Each structure stands twice: as structure tokens, then as C-alpha cells.
Amino acid sequence: MKINMCYKKLLFTASILLILFQFADTIRAQEVININIGSLHSWYRSDGSEIEEGGTIIEQQSGLAWPAQYADQDNQAAKAFWIATKNYTDADQYGGVTYPFKVVHVGPRGADPLREFMPIEFKLIGRHEHPQVYVDGSPASDLMFIENLAEVDPDLISDRMIYNEVNTSVGVTMIRKIYAWGQQYHDNYFIYEYIFKNTGNVDPDPEIEQQVTLEDVYFFWQYRYAASREGAQWTDLNSPRWGINEMLSTRGEPVEPNGGYPAWLNGVSAADSMRVQYAWMGRHSKAAYDLIGSPDVKYGSGRLGSPQYMGNITLHADTDVNDKNDDPFQPTTTSFVGSDEPETRPNEQFNPARMTDEYGWAATGHMWPRHDDIIGEGFPDIYEGTPGGFSNASGYGPYTMAPGDSVRIVIAEGVNGISREKCIEVGVNWLEAYNNPSETFTFDLPDGSTTNDKDEYKNAWVFTGEDSLFKTLGRARRNFDLNYEIAVPPPPPSLFQVNSGGDRISLSWSDDAESDANFSGYRIYRAIARYDTTFEVIYECGTGTENTEIVHEYNDTSVEPTTNYYYYISSFSDGGNNNTNANPSGQLESSMFWTRTTQPAKLLRPAGEKLADIRVVPNPFDIRSRIIQFPGEQDKLEFIDIPGICTIRIYTERGDLIRTIEHTNGSGSEAWNSETDHGQIVVSGVYIATFETPEGDTAIRKFIIIR
Questions:
Q1: What's the CA gap between 233 and 290, in Å, rounded?
Q2: DSSP annotation of 343
């Protein structure tokens, strides 16, 4: 009897563990779409919010990477989205219990895609397909590996849009549209357009389960920012990766002394003109030096690794379900919440006490003074004994939503800061003073004055990132106000090929971009040794350049042996369609990320100097030795020390021509896969290869194949 009971307990425990493992796998398996077309890269989940370690890369800091052409620039630690309401009775399938406060969640850590936020549709739509990019015949761009467009719509208002539909267990269906642009003045923010509708659908199937009015509804977001993964890692402190020393601020609240955004709309010029929340790296009590900007002391470059400011702006929030005008007093909650408080883990949509606390978070109102005002010159990592720092939080409401009612909220999120070049300049100067404390240094400040204080100098330049972020969010608002009708550059060529050669690297591209009404020319950019670095222009053609004739190929002859090279091509406009007022020339240029190569091109074997040096390897070719001849290419032979340009003809011993190869890449080698011109693998025998140069010089070689 005891044995039987033990067996039943073990079986029950095993069943529970299996369910938990399956549930965990479901959470991990949530579909993720990356947007990587501009200088800001990020990922998005199908269940409606980007939870901690919920992306394609399981990292504490992952997402909102800017400037994305460099590695480890991620500025996002976690996000959360909650819907909170009062006096709600669960549908029968969830127990039929009435709660004084009901909150459903996705994030910041947990997610329940089976019973809470349930994905219905999730897809990526593009204005055009990403280009096909090849290096030496192999796919060679990030987009070719990560992008899978569900639709191509030439009339799309943005370059990329994610469409995301999610049902929730309180009967609110969320439609989230995420817009992204590659235009260089609008490529470091995303716009999120939300429609929340009280459909009464509390599960994934189409059937409507209940029709009830939702009382005092709040839509509540949490943003756990952390700048940036690179800078955080080289501090040798673990906690900056969590955002423990982030400084947080808010602008535009009606409780601020000048009346905030509503007052600005009424003509108070001193009031804040935008409704924003944002963050940046602050000091850290355990750091040996001032951590603002995170200068590189560990590796000795000095470069500032965390200059980023990241934040969001409210672009629109319905006044009421029956009044679709923007309510300038939304969000009604602007606060900061502990990132590791009990309310952040786990999510419990059937726990009355927990949901009461969570509703209080959503309905907090405007927290005053702000976080950065409280911290001042202090250390945010020790404020209130925090174990994980604080997150920006904003709540929109309260709304009363009868069945069929909807609410529209539009938010933009972006990242900006000082440039990589300025990070290097300021960081190098700061490090020199740090390493030589007995010497006196004079530093130029952004306002034109000077200082002898290295930290004042460094921080003053980092703090200019605040204005840069505001400009970014201001451009997002301008885009929204224009109904997304901003100017766009010509598309990139749909095909870009890079081929290694013996004395050059050859680039070629398609001409379809020239059909755009504002097309003006092409630019070729190159980077050396790695692709996640700075690129420089090496060639341009078209209007306003030294090469006015439009071409579709370029030979890069300024290359060195044993060096890896990376390229991208852009199309640029004539400036006639630019309504951004951001560039005096008016010229717009397609994004580097459409065509940036992530595989290297490099010089091949130098061309042979004498025909007498030509060899066939291996000779004889023996199929039994294929593992050691060319691993992974079992039928390959190679002709080496050949002229850079020549025609190779292969004959049987009796004189039948079976293959002709035009060797044109300028190298001293050419591979042959043992196939005839008709795709047939040759049999054992003696073969003859002839080599003819454009000048008419010839050579003959015999070789043996044993199969």
C-alpha cells in the first residue's frame, strides 16, 4: 500500500514537472521578429512585450541596440505591459472569481502565452524585399539570415512594420503595429501604435466568451533601460547590466512647476513641449572612477562605452472611448518602480493581494520629485537599498470600456547620444588625465568654456546626449504629425555582389534602384578587418560626384594581401524629396544595413607570372584521398599559378571538349568541381587542360582522375 502511494506521488510529481517544462518551453518558444534596418536594432515578441531575456539572444541586456553598426550596444534589460481594471469577474474557464482589482501581464519577467497574453497573429511586412547580398557566391548580409517578410507592400507607410494581434484573459484584444524606417534622420526610433478593443475574447479561439464593461482600465508600461552592454561589461561590475545605476527622468507632467505639456499647448513657452520618459548611465558607488559614460579603463582605450540616452515619447492617447482626440494629460501615471520588487516576479493573475498592489502601480499618478532630482550627484545604485535599480513606468487611463469600445495609444521609443568619434576623443582625453593625476589638463566644454576637471569635461559631453534624444523623439513626433509621410531615400540595389580576386576585389550591383524618381547615384563604403566598425566612402558615382556617369560595377584595387574587407552600397537622392529640414544638402541615402556584408572578401592567390608555372592540383586526383585534398569539396581540383585573365578548356584524352571556364577575377587560381558543361561528374581517365590569355598565349597540362 505504501509502495503504491509513493508511486502515485512520484507519478503526480512527474506530471507536474512535465507540464512546467512544457510551459517553460512555450514561453521560450514565443516567436521573435528582429528589426535591423536602421541605426537602431531591436527584437519583438509575439505575446506583446519584450520580457527579460526573451529575445533571440538570451542576455540581460538585449535590444534597443544603438549605434547598431558596432557590437554590444544593447540598451534594454526588460519591458513589461499590464492591463489593469476594477471589479472584474473572470470568465468561467478561468474560475469565474470576482476580483476588486484584476491585472493581466506580459513581463517584465514572466509571461503566460496560454492563458494571459495569447498571440493570434505576428508578422513582418516590408515596403520592399531586402537585397540579395553575396560575397564570393555565399549569402553575406544579416538581413538574408534574419528577415522573413510575410508580405511586401509598396504602399507601406514605413520601411518595415510588425503586425501583432494578441488576445488577453480580460477580453481586451490588442493590435500592436511597430513602424521602422531606414531614412538616416528617422532610423533611430520605432513608433508603436496600439489599439485596445474590448472584444470579450478571453482565449485564442475566435469564440466570444463574455461581454462585460471594464471599469477604470489602465494600460501600464515598464521600461527597464540599461546603457549599454559594451560599457557595462568593461566596468567589471555585474550590476550595470541590470540598469542598477541608471538615472531616470520624466518631462511634460502637468504637476511640474510650469504646468508641463498641457501648459505648453496653451502657449506657456517655458513648459516642456514633449511627454517623455528616459534614462542614462549614472554613477556607481562601487566603481573606482566616475562611471557616467563608462570610459574604458579596463582595456585602456578610454573610449566612452555607454554614452546612450534612451527613452520614449507619447504621441497620442485617446481622451475617451468616444473622443478620439489626443488627451494632453495622458499618461496620467509617470513614475519609477523598483525593477526587482515582488510585483515584477512572477506574474500572478489570480492573486488578489498581488493584483491590488499592481493596480496601485498603474494608477500611481505623477511621482514627484523625479528620480534624477532625488539622486542628484549621488549614486542611483544604492538609492533605497535597491537590489536592481529602477524602471520608468507610465500608465494611461482610467478608461471605461463597454463591449466593442476601443482605445488608441501611440508611443515612440528611441536612442541617441554623442557620436563614436566624440566618444573616442573625449575618452582618450579623460583617460590621459586619469592616468596622470598630478598633471594639469585643460578641456573644452560643449558651451565653449574650459575646465581642468576631467569628470566635468567627460560628463558635460555625455549630457549633450539628452538634447540628442529629444531631437530624435521630436522627429518621431514630426513623422507622426505628418501622418508618416516623411521623405524616403531611393531603395538600395536589389542585388549586390562582392568577389575576391588576385589583384582586386570586384563589386557589382543591379540597376533597379534607378527607377526611383529621386535617384541620383551610388556610394560604395568599405571597412577593414571587421564589419561592426566604421565604414568609409571609397567610390561614388552620379549627380554631384566626380564620376557623373552611373555604373554598376567597381574594382577595388587599393587592397592588401591577408586583409579582410567589408562593403556596402547605398543609393542617394537628388534632394528634391527631402522634407526633413535635417540636412542642408537635402540628400537622403539608403541605410547601410540593407547591403552591409558580414562575410569578408580578400585578395586571392596572385596571378602567375609565367605560363610554365601552371599546375593542376591534386594530380593525380584520387577519390580515395578526397578527405585530405579539399575537405568538404570532394570533387574539387584547382588550377594554380594561372594568368589573372584566361580561358580554361578541359578535354578528354581523345580530344572532346567537356568544360570551358572563363577565369576573370585576376587571381592565380581557379577551381573545377569535376563537372562537364552539362553538369555531369567526369569518370576516371586522362584529361587535358589548355590555358589561353587574351593576348593569345597558350599552355597545356595533362592530369589524371581516378574515381
A1: 16
A2: G
Please report where in the chains the cell 560604395 appears, as a residue.
Answer: 524
What are the beta bridge partners of residue 45? 32
Whole-number Cα distances in Å, 437 to 451, 460, 691: 15, 20, 69
| Spatial strand order in the sheet of 519-528 | 536-542, 519-528, 565-573
pLDDT at 244: 97
| SS3 of residue 457 by DSSP | helix
Q: Convert the pLDDT of each residue in 604-623 to its tens digit.
A: 888 999 999 999 999 999 98
Q: What one-character DSSP code corresponds to residue 240?
A: G
Nearest to 121 by CA among 80, 174, 82, 169: 174
Average the pLDDT over 563-575 and give the result. Answer: 93
pLDDT tens-digit series, residues 335-360: 999 999 999 988 999 999 999 999 99
83-93 pLDDT, tens digit each: 999 999 999 99
CB 383, CB 444: distance < 8 Å: no
Q: What is the CATH number of the domain that holds 679?
A: 2.60.40.1930
Q: What share of the chain is helix, strand, coil (3-state, %, to 5)?
A: 20, 35, 45
Record the pTM: 0.88
458 assigned to some structural domain: no
**Residue 573, SS3?**
strand
Residues 179 and 242 grouped into a single domain? yes
Q: DSSP character for 513?
A: G
**Domain that residue 404 falls in:** 31-416
Query: Is 482 a member of any domain?
Result: no
Report the C-alpha gap between 298 and 9 in whole angstroms.
54
3-state DSSP assignment of residue 339: coil
CA distance between the termini of the chain: 71
Q: Is residue 666 part of a domain?
A: yes
How far apart are alpha carbons 148 and 125 in whole angstroms? 9
Does residue 1 surpass a pLDDT of 50? no
Bridge pairing between strands 443-444 and 276-281: unpaired
Q: How many CA atoms lie within 13 A of 534 on its CB side?
A: 5
Do residues 409 and 316 make contact, with C-beta atoms less than 8 angstroms apart? yes
Residue 29 pLDDT level (bands cut at 50, 70, 90): low
**Chain-centroid distance, C-alpha 52:** 16
CA distance 643 to 636: 20
What distance lies between CA 59 and its chain's CA centroid?
14
pLDDT, average across residues 589-600: 97
How high is the mean pLDDT of the chain?
93
Q: State the residue for C-alpha cell 575646465.
A: 451
Nearest C-alpha neighbor of 555 from the set 592, 502, 598, 596: 502
Across residues 105-110, what is the average pLDDT? 95
